[in-house]
Amino acid sequence: MHSSLRISFCFGLLLLFLVSCKENKKTTQNIQSSSQEVMTSIQKSGTISDIDGNVYRYLEMCDGNEWMIENLNVSKYRNGDDIPQVQDPEEWANLTTGAWCYYLNDSSYGAVFGKLYNWYAVNDSRGIAPEGWLVATKADWKELTDCLGGENVAGGKLKEIGSSHWMTPNVGAVNTSGFSALPGGGRSSKGDFTMVDNLGIFWTETNYDELQAWIRHLSYSNTYVVEFYNDNRNGFSVRVVRE
């Protein structure tokens, strides 16, 4: 019970970041003024397919890695085994193995934001990424944010521009990286859904401890890329990089 109270719903902590941009108005203005800057030099681009036949675009980023620029939407591990779709909140909350869901269990969200996966699916030895690709690690995300100017400003360069998917005002979003980060929200360890349109939350492949793993998240309200850790049972978006 104590463990559940300790790690349950780190989303509450994430909400604290949603108001932080008010204290950084000057930084925000600087980022918004950079909307005319030239997109990061892209050396390689193309498409990849997963085992379901979904096709994704990828770009080489300023860190030298080739990143998928769409959220993962696969329903099978690399060897063809199914990743179970789990809709029931109680069943989701009790999982210790891989699973996925759509936001609100509604496939229309999947068409835009891809699937939400618990970390057990991310960490499964059968592999959730297409052949030759890996779920981005904590170190991969650090390299990417560092080359984009650091955690305080990189979010603006990663977020999709405008309010088609992000809540207004989508502060500082210029997408000069081409990463096109989307606010897919997430599913808590209790099975609740929250924060679509507000936050883009991405698992890393790197664990924090036995019960939690590292994430990165971006908000509509600031330009930060926040590093944090969350309960393995939560459901978040996934991006992959080429091995």
Characterise this structure.
- The chain is α+β, with helices and mostly antiparallel strands and about 240 residues long.
- The chain has one domain.
- The strands form 5 sheets. The protein has a 3-stranded antiparallel sheet with strand order 1-2-3, with no helix packed on it. A 3-stranded antiparallel sheet has the order 9-10-11, with no helix packed on it.
- A hairpin with a 6-residue loop joins strand 10 and strand 11.
- It is globular and about 40 Å long.
- The N terminus is likely disordered.
Class from helix and strand fractions: alpha+beta
Overall pLDDT metric:
88
- Largest pleated sheet: 3 strands, antiparallel
Quaternary structure type: single chain
- Molecular shape: globular
How far apart, in Å, are the first and last alpha carbons?
Answer: 39 Å
How much helical structure, as a percent, in the residues? 10-25%
Strand line-up of the largest beta sheet: 1-2-3
> Low-confidence runs (pLDDT<50, min 5 residues)?
1-42
Number of discrete helical segments:
8
- One letter per element, helices H and strands E, the order comes to HHHEEEHEHEHEHHEEEEEE
Q: What percentage of amino acids are in beta strands?
A: 15-25%
Tell me the radius of gyration: 17 Å
Overall structural domain count: 1
Q: Please count the beta strands (DSSP E, at least 2 residues each).
A: 12
